[in-house]
Amino acid sequence: MKNLLNRITTHPDICHGKPVVRSMRYPVEMILDLLSAGMTSKEIIKDYPALNLSDIKACLQFASRITSVKAIHKIVA
What we know:
The chain is mostly helical. It is 44% helix and 5% strand. A two-stranded antiparallel ribbon has the order 1-2. The termini are far apart.
């Protein structure tokens, strides 16, 4: 499981520091958007052959980890 998260990297010179797959210019956000739009992993890999199933699973695991918070508090401005 930890190996999957190693596929997600950040670097200030790549996609403005957003989390990406394996230091390539495939932001995690884009992969999640494609999945939420209804694309299958197979379709994504067909359109982006540099990616593989482990990359897509890593994006999902990253999203799961980043949303695992104990509580969300509303901030009143």
